[in-house]
Specification:
single chain, alpha+beta, Immunoglobulin-like, six-stranded mixed sheet, five-stranded antiparallel sheet, about 20% helix
Length: about 150
């Protein structure tokens, strides 16, 4: 895939997460579950889709998550680049750091791969869309049916 198509794909995927964030901001009925710090949970997931974990951990709302491969095709036996996008909102009066670990699981809940992401700093009273590039096996992305999530706020 040439550079222009990568940019177009990145923009389209980024817009999807931003639209999700804006929709969430306009829907007062969306409820965030108060969770223990650290929090861990599992969600059904299809690679490329944007989901909302809907948890609030120590005043940080986690409102969006997407894992999107840079390629449209995922050749078996290859390692591919993917971009992880996460949306957070800080409802507290202090800056916080959020650490997230993703565990890719198949349909039976068997762990396929584990990725620890860089800490995300979210300023007091603000929203942040964090982006990070990761490398993962194409076979893992194709087999992923769930994500086991771990998040800790400091």
């Amino acid at each position: 895939m040439n550079a222009r198509w990568r940019v177009v794909l990145s923009v389209v995927l980024g817009v999807g997460l931003l639209v999700t964030a804006q929709v969430m901001a306009q829907e007062p009925e969306v409820q965030f579950t108060e969770a223990e710090n650290p929090w861990q949970g599992e969600i059904e997931y299809t690679v490329g889709e944007t989901v909302n974990p809907k948890v609030q951990i120590a005043g940080i709302r986690w409102f969006g998550l997407q894992v999107a491969p840079e390629r449209a095709t995922l050749p078996s036996g290859t390692e591919v680049k993917a971009q992880v996008r996460m949306g957070f909102e800080n409802t507290t009066g202090r800056t916080a750091s959020v650490m997230v670990v993703l565990i890719f699981e198949d349909e039976q809940g068997v762990g396929l791969d584990r990725v620890e992401l860089k800490k995300v700093r979210v300023k007091a009273g603000q929203r942040k869309i964090a982006r990070e590039k990761i490398r993962v096996q194409a076979d893992v992305l194709r087999a992923t049916a769930r994500l086991y999530l771990f998040a800790e706020v400091r």
